[in-house]
Design goal:
By secondary structure, the protein is an alpha/beta fold. The protein has 3 domains: 206 residues, FAD/NAD(P)-binding domain (3-Layer(bba) Sandwich), CATH 3.50.50; 109 residues, 3-Layer(bba) Sandwich (FAD/NAD(P)-binding domain); 105 residues, 2-Layer Sandwich (Enolase-like, domain 1). It contains 14 helices and 25 strands. The strands form 7 sheets. It has a 5-stranded parallel β-sheet with strand order 3-2-1-7-20, covered by helices on one side. Strands 9-16-10-11-12 form a 5-stranded parallel β-sheet. A hairpin with a 2-residue loop joins strand 18 and strand 19. Helix 3 packs parallel to helix 6. It is globular, with a radius of gyration of 23 Å.
Length: 453
């Protein structure tokens, strides 16, 4: 029994069915969860629109001219909802195909393997229960969300008309993606980040490169800055404090992107003996909760709030339930991706983390400005950077920024999984001209053997 049909829940249920287990999933809303309905998928559809708009704005570089360009953001929203609808139908079809029982309603644990489904769903029993209720956007005391002038990404993904100016609170993945989207459509954007840089957990060079790219796009970035007060009137006035002291920011809209909190309320955790800590369900490395036979996966655990991590956790749990030997997940190797332009992708340790741990490493780096395909595409920003163990040339970190680098990361991930080294990646013949050649050259650069730089 899975409570929640997001990317963790529905994947767990389908994999359980594939392994011969009887599976049911309880969902109070649409299948696919926040990711498919109000997160990953609709935002990526909108970002594709932003890329098209950006191409038009730089059309003269390609010898293309036009008159009277009009931008209809409402149609962009409609297109994103159409993409969502197609995928939700696809997930429902998959559940039917694998004979997974989909129960509509809210699941509440009652202990003893029982789950009560509200809205007339009755009580269901199962030997094993997986909680996959996800998470929601956090708010701040200084920024009370009203859904109109101060909003979260949930409201932003349904907003059909754009403001003239917007302040985005939070320079993580979500904040950076919306900053690029809004700026592409001509909104005056300011990003306010409490930490010293954008994407605070990313490699420092990557963060610096992204801040420079945003500056070129006309996006103002205020790092090391805290919002102390907000006032809604004719627009919104924010009092902020940062390196330049206290100042006021005025804008039409504030988008709050400051992290998430787990959906742990009204799930029956206490009745089932499931322990929560700091707003998330506590789990061990096998995703077991404090209650026997009850597991938790995805954002509700607070482990690493990414859709593909939730899916991996779900598969890991049900394969153990089916009696398969499964190694614990290594979260340091989970891929991370940000889909603004330039894109950012990474896994493993950063150069700074390696230095702090005292581990001896080699660093290989190759700029996209030296890559033929990137130049031909007109996307020369960014670089590929690999961190390699100095003794064995083992790949221990990958950090990329540039056009479509989220698609390039998997090559380095599979090399790591197969215990490959920078030598194998450097030896592999890559098609020319492709962006992937930058990966090969970065691996060679770590060995002091790069050809094109």
């Amino acid at each position: 029994m899975v409570v929640g049909a997001g990317p963790g829940g529905y994947v767990a249920a389908i994999r359980a069915a594939q392994l011969g287990l009887s599976a049911a999933v309880v969902e109070r809303d649409q299948v696919g969860g926040i990711c498919l309905n109000w997160g990953c998928i609709p935002s990526k559809a909108l970002l594709r629109n932003a890329e098209v708009v950006s191409l038009f704005r730089h059309a003269d570089e390609y010898g293309v001219s036009y008159d009277n360009l009009t931008l209809d953001f409402g149609k962009a929203i409609d297109r994103s909802r159409a993409v969502v609808h197609r995928l939700t139908r696809g997930v429902e079809s998959l559940l039917r195909r694998y004979k997974v029982t989909l129960v509509k309603g809210s699941g509440v644990l009652k202990g003893g393997g029982r789950v009560e489904v509200t809205d007339g769903g009755g009580t269901l029993n199962s030997k094993s229960i997986i909680i996959a209720t996800g998470a929601r956007q956090r708010s701040l005391p200084s920024l009370p969300v009203d859904g109109k002038a101060i909003i979260t990404s949930r409201e932003a993904l349904a907003l059909k008309s754009l403001p003239t100016s917007a302040v985005i609170i939070g320079g993580g993945a979500t904040g950076c993606e919306f900053a690029y989207l809004y700026a592409a459509y001509g909104v005056k954007v300011t990003v306010v980040e409490l930490m010293p840089r954008l994407l605070p957990t990313a490699d420092v060079e990557v963060s610096t490169a992204l801040e420079q790219a945003f500056e070129q796009q006309g996006i103002a970035v205020m790092t090391g800055t805290k919002v102390t007060q907000s006032k809604v009137g004719q627009g919104v006035t924010l009092a902020v404090a940062g390196p330049k002291g206290a100042q006021d920011l005025r804008c039409d809209l504030v988008l709050v992107c400051v992290g998430i909190q787990g959906n742990v309320e009204n799930v029956g955790l206490s009745a089932a003996g499931v322990k929560a800590e700091r707003g998330f369900i506590a789990v061990d490395e096998q995703m077991r909760t404090s209650a026997g036979g009850v597991f938790a996966i995805g954002d509700v655990t607070g482990k690493l709030p990414l859709a593909h991590v939730a899916s991996a956790q779900g598969v890991s749990v049900v394969e153990r339930l089916a009696g398969k030997g499964v190694a614990p997940l290594d979260y340091s190797l989970m891929p991370r991706a940000v889909y603004c332009q330039p894109q950012v992708a990474s896994w493993g340790v950063t150069e700074e983390e390696a230095a702090q741990s005292g581990r001896k490493v080699k660093v290989g780096k190759f700029p996209m400005s030296a890559n033929g395909k990137a130049l031909a595409l007109g996307d020369r920003q960014g670089f590929v950077k690999v961190i390699v163990d100095a003794q064995y040339n083992e790949l221990i970190g990958a950090h990329l920024i540039g056009s479509e680098v989220t698609e390039l990361l998997a090559e380095l991930s599979i090399a790591k999984m197969l215990e490959g080294t920078a030598r194998e990646v450097g030896w592999l013949t890559h098609a020319h001209p492709t962006l992937s050649e930058a990966v090969k050259e970065a691996a060679l650069a770590a060995l002091g053997e790069a050809i094109h730089i």
